[in-house]
Amino acid sequence: MSPLRPSIAIVATGGSIAGVGPDRMDFILYPELGEHITIEQSLERIPEANDIASISAEDLVSVGSTAIGPEEWLRLAKRINQLLLDDGTAGVVVTHGTATLEETAYFLHLTVKSSKPVVVTGAMRPPTALGTDADLNLLDAIRVAASPVAGGMGVLTILNNEIQCARDVVKTNTFRVETFKPNELGFLGYADSDGEVVMYRAPLRKHTTSTEFDVAHKDSLPRVDIVYCHAGSDELLIDAVRSNKSDGLILAGFGGGSFPPKAIGAAAEAVKEGIPVVLASRSIAGRVVMTPRKNEQGFIVSDNLQPQKARILLMLGLTVTTNRDEIQRMFAEY
User: Fold this and answer.
1) Contact 226, 312 (CB under 8 A)
2) Does 184 have pLDDT greater than 90?
3) pLDDT at residue 1 greater than cutoff 80
4) DSSP string covering 40-70, please?
């Protein structure tokens, strides 16, 4: 065993990258079957990984990512932070289903307390399918986590050879292997065909060791709901959030921040009742910005975070403060 190989820890959670389908031509039924191979079985498929790193691996959970939420996020963040306290651990890889991969990655981006690489990967085709991307994505994730150039970048994702920032990456296609995109901002680099990990840009927003979020002693997170506006939206769903006395609300509107009158009126009432409301957009790119009227009504704006990521930031923000100005500052910094 070469002492030059970095030690990489893998924390597996299931998902398509470990999915088991009925035959090689199955690309759609395996999530309903719910069977998964272990991370050790995944690693047996890529013995080449042993030339890159000294690997330890564990299955934290083994589920589809539709079953992953705040409880699992907290377990995962705590386990990763524990692993990274070991001076001998050079980086961590997380395997995850693609349905909520971007959300888990952003949560970790804000709560991992280390500058060592943390790389989240998944697959669009299970290992039992013809043309699976599971093996290469896992190998690439190990390569990136073992690379010195990945340090200090926050949490990264890699699928289809493309290294993305967890803050910006979004799943954009239901079945294609090139599904994960960073909207208009550009991905960070490649795990390329010559075996090199090549980075071209770095995230500027605060992350990991620069955040104020500490979940080490948290057993739960505030409840934040998302209401998605459409033509003719009214107060029904917003009033349900108000009646539930949820801790926060993300209201996904149109374009740069416009909303149906009844919906925005109900959201303003929620603010008066003490529920923080963040205005986001259902558009795939661009910012929601503050206006005098929004400010007067007490709203918070999401900047360019997608609604599902704005929810995560508000959940974490509410573990620190309920002050509206402080939460708005977080949306400008993270």
Assistant:
1) no
2) no
3) no
4) HHHHHT-GGGGGT-EEEEEEEEEE-GGG--H
Going by C-beta distance under 8 Å and a sequence separation of 6 or more, which residues neighbour residue 169? 102, 105, 157, 180, 181, 182, 187
154 Cβ partners below 8 Å, 6+ apart? 109, 112, 118, 165, 166, 167, 203, 207, 208
CA–CA distances in Å: residue 153 to residues 136, 142, 231: 22, 16, 40
Which element (helix H / strand E) includes 243? helix 236-244
- Rounded Cα distance, 93 and 326, in Å: 33
What 3-state class would DSSP assign to 305? coil
Task: Tell whether the model's pLDDT for residue 3 goes beyond 90.
Answer: no
Sign of torsion over alpha carbons 313, 318, 321, 326: positive
Q: What are phi and psi of 51, to 5 degrees?
A: -80, -15
Alpha carbon distances (Å) from 258 to 123, 229, 264, 295: 36, 10, 9, 14
DSSP-derived 3-state class of residue 81 = helix
| Secondary structure (DSSP) of 8-43 | EEEEEEESGGGB--SSTT-SSSHHHH--B--HHHHH
| 290-305 confidence digits (pLDDT tens) | 999 999 999 999 999 9
Q: Which residues pair with 224 in a beta bridge?
A: 248
pLDDT (tens digit per residue) in 242-292: 999 999 999 999 999 999 999 999 999 999 999 999 999 999 999 999 999
Residue 26 corresponds to which tokens in the numbers above? 């199955």
Distance CA 146, CA 76 (A): 20
CA gap 27, 175 in Å, rounded: 8
CA distance 281 to 260: 13
* DSSP 8-state secondary structure symbol assigned to residue 98: S
Query: Please, what is the average pLDDT of the chain?
Result: 97
Q: Which two tokens stand for residue 213?
A: 């979020």
**Cross-strand partners of 299:** none
Instruction: Enumerate the β-bridge partners of residue 190.
Output: 162, 198
Residue 2 scores a pLDDT above 60: no
pLDDT of 4:
83
In angstroms, the CA 47 to CA 262 distance is 58
